[in-house]
C-alpha cells in the first residue's frame, strides 16, 4: 500500500483536532487508492497461502466447496481472487478462500485423471488481483472488508462481531480516525441495514470487556449481550459479579449454569429498560440465581413455580411482539414475507395462537 502511505504522509498532522467528517473524508480518499497498487496476474495455485487470520474459514464445509467447484467447472471463475505478494514469492490470500479451495479440488481431479502428468492442467494457475508492498495491518483491513462485503450476515454472530470489531479497530489504527468516522466508513461499505450495523457497533461501544468475554466464551448469546448495552459500565460490573457467582454456584453443571445465567440476564435486561428503580433492581441480581421461596405449604411450591414460568414466558412473547409492532419497517417486512411464502400464514398462526390463549383464559376463569 505504498501510494496509500504516501497519501497519508501528505495529510497535515494534528488529526486529533480534525472533525469526524474530515476523518471520514481522509479515510475514504486513502481507501480509494487501494486498487492503484494492484494488477491482474496469473499465478500458480500452489503458491497461494490461506490467511491464518480469516475468521470465516471454519464456516466452509466440504459440500459447499464441492458445489462451488462444480459451478466453476461449468462457468469458469467469475470473480477474481485477491492476494498480497510477499518477498519470498508466495501470495497471501485476502479474498476468495472458498474459491481457492474449490480450484484445488478441480486441480486434484485433473491430476487424478492424468497420473503421468503429461497434460497441461487448466486449473494449475488462476488470475488474481495482486497487491504488492502491503503491511500486515492493511492486509487485515482488506481481508475483513472483503468478508463483510461478500459474506455479510452469512456467518454466526460471534464471527460477524469479531470481524467487524477488528475491522473498525484497524481502520482507526491505520488512518488515525475516530470511532465515528470508522463506523461511518463501514456503513458505506456494507449492504447491512442501519439497524443491523448499529447492533454490531453498539456492542463495541457500550459493553465492558468482561461482558464481551461472556459472549465470546458462549456464556451469553449475542442478543443477551446487546440487551445489556443501556447499562452503565458500573452497572455492568454488578451483572458480571452476579454471573461469576452463578457460575461458581453451578459447580460445573452446565444445565444449571445456563438456568442461573438466564435468570440473571433476564433481570439485568429488564433493569436496562427501566428509567426508574434500575439501581434497586440491579442490587437484587444475585437473588435471581435462586429465587427466595416464601413460607407456603410444600405442595404449593411446584404450582407457583410453574405459574411463574408461564407468566415469564408470556411476558417475553409480548415483549418480542411489542418490538415488532412498534417498528413500521419490521411490520412491512413481515407483510412481504407473508405475501411471498405460501407455506402457512403468519396472520393465521397469530390468530390461532390468540384463539387458543382466549380459550385457555376462559377455562381458567370459569374454574373448569
TrEMBL record:
Supply the Pfam families for this chain. ParB_N
Where is the sequence biased in composition, kind Polar residues?
10-20
InterPro entries referenced in this protein's UniProt entry, alphabetically: Chromosome_partition/occlusion, ParB/Sulfiredoxin_sf, ParB_N
Which BP terms does GO give this entry?
Answer: chromosome segregation
SUPFAM superfamilies on file: ParB/Sulfiredoxin (SSF110849)
Q: What positions does the domain ParB-like N-terminal occupy?
A: 38-147
Q: Provide the residue span(s) of the region labelled Disordered.
A: 1-20
One GO cellular component assignment for this chain's record is:
chromosome
Q: Which domain of life is it from?
A: Bacteria
PANTHER family per record: CHROMOSOME-PARTITIONING PROTEIN PARB-RELATED (PTHR33375)
Name of the featured protein: ParB N-terminal domain-containing protein
Q: Which organism is it from?
A: Dysosmobacter segnis
